[in-house]
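Weekly sync notes, structure subgroup
Attendees: PM, AL, DS (notes)

Item 1: joint prediction request from the bench team. They want all four components modeled as one assembly rather than separately. Inputs as received:
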Amino acid sequence: MELGEKTRRRLKVKNELLRQCMGEVLGTFVLLMFGCAAGAQVKTSRETKGQFLSGNLAFSVGVMSAMYLCKGVSGAHLNPAVSLSLCVVGQLPWKKLIPYSLCQVLGAYLGSAVVFFVYYDAIMEYSGGVLTVTGQNETASIFATYPSDYVSLKTSFLDQVVGTALLMLCILPVTDEKNTPAPDSLTPPIVAAVVLGISISLSANCGAAINPARDLGPRLLTLSAGWGTEVFSCFDYWFWVPLVAPMLGGVLGSLLYIFVIQWHLPDHEVDETKDQSGTAELKHRKYPFEEKKEIIGHKEVRL
Amino acid sequence: MELGEKTRRRLKVKNELLRQCMGEVLGTFVLLMFGCAAGAQVKTSRETKGQFLSGNLAFSVGVMSAMYLCKGVSGAHLNPAVSLSLCVVGQLPWKKLIPYSLCQVLGAYLGSAVVFFVYYDAIMEYSGGVLTVTGQNETASIFATYPSDYVSLKTSFLDQVVGTALLMLCILPVTDEKNTPAPDSLTPPIVAAVVLGISISLSANCGAAINPARDLGPRLLTLSAGWGTEVFSCFDYWFWVPLVAPMLGGVLGSLLYIFVIQWHLPDHEVDETKDQSGTAELKHRKYPFEEKKEIIGHKEVRL
Amino acid sequence: MELGEKTRRRLKVKNELLRQCMGEVLGTFVLLMFGCAAGAQVKTSRETKGQFLSGNLAFSVGVMSAMYLCKGVSGAHLNPAVSLSLCVVGQLPWKKLIPYSLCQVLGAYLGSAVVFFVYYDAIMEYSGGVLTVTGQNETASIFATYPSDYVSLKTSFLDQVVGTALLMLCILPVTDEKNTPAPDSLTPPIVAAVVLGISISLSANCGAAINPARDLGPRLLTLSAGWGTEVFSCFDYWFWVPLVAPMLGGVLGSLLYIFVIQWHLPDHEVDETKDQSGTAELKHRKYPFEEKKEIIGHKEVRL
Amino acid sequence: MELGEKTRRRLKVKNELLRQCMGEVLGTFVLLMFGCAAGAQVKTSRETKGQFLSGNLAFSVGVMSAMYLCKGVSGAHLNPAVSLSLCVVGQLPWKKLIPYSLCQVLGAYLGSAVVFFVYYDAIMEYSGGVLTVTGQNETASIFATYPSDYVSLKTSFLDQVVGTALLMLCILPVTDEKNTPAPDSLTPPIVAAVVLGISISLSANCGAAINPARDLGPRLLTLSAGWGTEVFSCFDYWFWVPLVAPMLGGVLGSLLYIFVIQWHLPDHEVDETKDQSGTAELKHRKYPFEEKKEIIGHKEVRL
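Output from the run, pasted for the record:
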């Protein structure tokens, strides 16, 4: 892909943060395109062209695709709760948290906007032309998440904390080179499987947003596209739950992983000498996919 | 597989383009066999032996299988929109665009023809012996795609542009050695997952052809097998949309990837110097399982 | 797993063919356990604990599991049509065809026998205690395959030929080191995906046996377990179709692959020198997973 | 993840068994969170937000996630039947069997407890506030497993033996470096697929616990959370079956694998000489993507 090498060098974005922001916007854009489009397909086809599982699968494929798309640029957080967690554990500088988060919301807004245009005819046909947030023909849930009627505020908050904690608890080891991680080049489908698992098991209460950007972006879209302020005010201004609870849950899940598992993982150097111990354990596999890492600048990326 | 080494050497097709064309014909043949057969199974069994998801899954498996089959010969484009996009980004010589595309249509025709024969009894039984394009017992949609009643021409065009753009946006990074790609030997299942994702989220409006050959080949088959000229004339000669819109969408998606992501990926200096040869090829990825990581500030981003 | 190293050395089966036969028996045993058990679960639960897709998925997982189980011993053919095809292309000595095939039938018989015992109560409850081959409460189709009513003999024969040809056409490239194969250690899930694809797209006519052992073994089980001779005589002695047609189809598919694709694949040695050609093609990736192969005995296994 | 290196060194659990126990607790915790949450979602949504397959998929994703989480610490047995089997084959010291098993039960209890709190509102709404073990609105089966009405004690015992034997028969080769295993870094999704296969094919009789901890933990939770002693006494104190039968089945399946397959695998001479150390460990696989091929007669078997 050598299209216009010279032009490329001229236009290449020199500012690292800007580059990363572009990556997060496009990644979250793709994530929401898959997810909301599947939601629209299932709802407007009245489940004849897909079922509940389709929406779960689409978010899963969206995560995989978005990760391959922007992992090389921005790390593919796609989720302010992930970015915050990585700040807490020291993998992302705090000053990048706000820009990352805003870009994720922007990408989510744009992705759901495209879905709105592509499914405009279908939504009009399904809803009879009236865009509502509640009732039998509501279409707002194609985009943002809303709680089930029977769920109390407390439970829905717990639900989002638990879901996001589970997310971080499951994806941190997949990329932790001290643990027994997946091959770096295959983390996207593995993380996608985790997201699928959470979607099918923790979405009954309030839709498994577990991602403030995935929820706020489409909610702003519905606000600006004709659903009215009810998208924010409904369920007693419930919208803040998927914004706040995932941030808390993500951090809790990350700390749980670090305190209970990561800190106690065998150090690899030490292991070498200890391997003679004769214990009958499942030893730590060394590095089956033995990734050679590059030295960039002055710091070696530790194997 | 040493069957007749001598014969092999004698019969080996020396002309590269001819070889590639044979690959594309057989690959698209396999793709359509899976896809149309699943469509036939779901429809003629009245959804007792599969549901909407089956058709999506079958196209996904078809893409995977076709890629393993002919990637080594022709690159496994399987789709004129993919071939055109690769011409635009300089990975395929323009003079090969027409032969590739024609072969893809031919393979699609042959694949759907085999499905027609295998499911002939079932189609006759389901349709009462009358092959129609519309109405409750229509069977034309087993093969080509048709729009939903409520979809305007403009929306269906947008739908195909967006679907194909999303396709290219998601599969280019999976094979881009400058980015963080999948292992070369595992791109087929990854691309298959992307195709599944698009099938379940963007097929409500008009069937997610996102591939002129996948649509035209089976449409020609139905024309020649007894469905009549209505397969082209119905919905006000709508058939041109899945021929034209994917070509535009594929290019747009590719350029979006290149401008927003690829141009700004960190250079891998060693590669750069070795790649001055001026050829416009997809180079061999050097260490399939190696991932180049960026240092952000003083810490590395791992996720 | 060093359990009883001495005993092991004493009991190790020295005869290679016997070892391979044991592998094929156990592999096909596992395949049929998954497949028939899922069939029993779906039918006896009246689709409340799974649907048509479950049976397809179970055969797919069965293939994957059986391949990991016995690939290292016998090559995991699991299917006389596969064994015959490999004889034709020179990868299995002809003298092993009959032993392999018999063992596959035996394994299939044993696997379905276990399923019969595990699901005995369920089958009795579902069928009202009468084991029949046709009618609303038939349970024979849990085990062997039977054609749909509307399918002519000719069509069902074609169906089995096409299904098995597609199988070989799709799995040969996945393991062909001249092509762009999957990593050897991951061929089982890839082949499993192909089997899933065929199951969901080519099982409407007559159940997608595409494997004489998978069909004959369970049919013999039903004969001996109380369903009577009707399992052979029904549909005008149709049972021979899934025995004969797959053998023909497997060979046809293999030859199609060899003649159209394999013979024309670039030779790797030659490629090295040709790589300067400046053509703008997707070159043949060399060996991303670069497998180091061992020399066993006197012959080097060609990379 | 360099959070508090000093603190880490101070707090690192020095006792290996304690570390392993922590790993098993957290791993089984995650497994049950996925599995029971999906069960709760399917049941309380009256199958509108998922179907039977969702529960199967969730346990599968749970196994994958739990394995990545604690494989590096404890080997990720997650199941007393697996631990016992590994004791029998010499991969785990017998003295660790009880601690491992207790921790697995504890993790399962905690995981299902979290699900109970998250789905409390939903369970109350679904059950009308009365927590019952039988009847139309029963909710106990969200957590522990119960037999179908028609299943005899003998059959349900056989069912659990067979299911767990199949589990061990399928996962041992996936990690056996003498066989043709999956890459170490990708065993979690492969094992997850096996678990999915067993869930969809052997869960009709009594829910496919095939894991005493997965069953006892949630059963204790329901006992302590208000379902009463009926969770143990129902079906004539059936609860002991998924505690005892899997232990037997796991050992049988492991021995079947070892006697029929493993003992007869070709020796890889270099390995053998180096492995004389007498330790009973699962050695590191040397070349994850390398496969040793046998020569059969004068040709190699490739498939």
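Discussion: The longest strand of chain C covers residues 295-296.
Action: AL to compare against the crosslinking data before next sync.
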